[in-house]
Every structure is written in structure tokens, then in C-alpha cells.
Amino acid sequence: MKRAIVALMAVVVILIGAVFYFTKQAQDKANKVVEPITSQKSSSSIENNKNNNSSNKSTHNRAISKDNKSKEVFSNDEWMLMGYMAYARKNHNNEATAKLIEDIAQELSDDVLNIVKNSDNTYTLSNKYGSVNVEVGINQVKVTNDGITINSKIELKKTFGLYKNKLARMTAAIKSKEE
């Protein structure tokens, strides 16, 4: 009888360990964003990274540059635009990237799209259809308020990196409106 109880307890301990192991594996995979992930009806909250200051931003951009084995560095404003455009693509009939960038640039210049910089890495973008919040993280960009859209910076760079000059002009126009 004691052997049966000991054996049963051993099986329970092994099963509990297996559950924790596989749960940890699933969480680790979920935390690694490789492909864009979209959840239209998520009630998850976004943690604000309030410790991100100017010196962290430049260190952060150098780290991204080293990770991508490229000397090309994007500002948080440019990452924000890329994340927003990846999100907005669904509302622009999945347009080609060049056309999408032109449309967003036109919306900015026509004051149809308004951008408010809340902190070094958080923004609120609004138009006649509503507003979204954009948070630029270390490895990803999150767009919230219409579900949650998460894009890795690697994917954003692949999609929008060729348009760095256009993005820089767009961010310069945003900064000039802030002043």
C-alpha cells in the first residue's frame, strides 16, 4: 500500500513538473515575436516603459543596429511610423508598401492623421476613425486600442527599411508641427 502511494505521488510530481516545463516553453515562444501577431479583441494591458530616457534610447538603437548587423539606425519616431503603417495596412486594403507610405505621408501633411508624442517611446495617433496608442519597445512595436498588433523590429525593418529617407522626412514634419 505504501509503495502504491509513493508511486502515485511520484507520478503526480512528474506530471506537475511536466506542466510547468511545457507552460514555460509556451511562454518563451510567445515572448519571441518573429512574425506580426494580431489579436483584435484582447483586453491585455500595455506596460509603459517609463525608464526609457535619451541615453537609453541611443544605447537601445545601437543595440538594435548590432543585432541586425547593420549600421542603419532608426529613431523611435521612425519605429512608431513603421509600426503604425504595419497596423494600418489592413485599413488600406493591404496596399503595396510604397503606396501605403505615400498615403500615410499625405494623411500627415493634410492633418488627417494627428500624432501626439506622450513620452520617448509612446505615442497616440488619431484620425476621423479613432485613435491608437503606439509603444516602441526594445525588439518590437505594439499598437493598441483596436485590439493589439505587435510587430518585431526585424520584420518592420525588412518591410519599411528601404524607405528610411521618406520616414525621416515624415518624422521631421511631425517634429515641426510639435513646435
Provide an overview of this structure:
Residues 36-68 are annotated as: Disordered. The chain crosses the membrane at residues 6-23. Keywords: Membrane, Transmembrane, Transmembrane helix. Residues 39-58 have a biased composition (Low complexity). The protein is α+β, with helices and mostly antiparallel strands. It is 52% helix and 17% strand. It is built from six helices and six strands. The chain has a six-stranded antiparallel β-sheet. Strand 5 and strand 6 form a beta hairpin. The radius of gyration is 21 Å and the shape is elongated. Residues 30-71 have low confidence and may be disordered.
SSE map:
Layout: H1 2-31, E1 37-39, H2 54-67, H3 76-88, H4 97-109, E2 114-117, E3 122-127, E4 130-136, E5 140-144, E6 148-152, H5 153-160, H6 164-178
Antiparallel strand pairs: 1-6, 2-3, 3-4, 4-5, 5-6
Helix pairs in contact: 3-5, 3-6, 4-6
Estimate the strand proportion.
Answer: 15-25%
Main pleated-sheet profile? 6 strands, antiparallel
- CA radius of gyration is 21 Å
Please give the number of β-strands: 6
Shape, principal axes of CA atoms: elongated
User: Mean pLDDT, rounded to whole units?
Assistant: 76
Low-confidence stretches: 30-71
Topology as H/E string?
HEHHHEEEEEHH
- Spatial ordering of strands, largest sheet: 1-6-5-4-3-2
Gap from first CA to last CA: 80 Å
Classification by helices and strands:
alpha+beta
Helix content: 40-55%
Tally of separate helices: 6
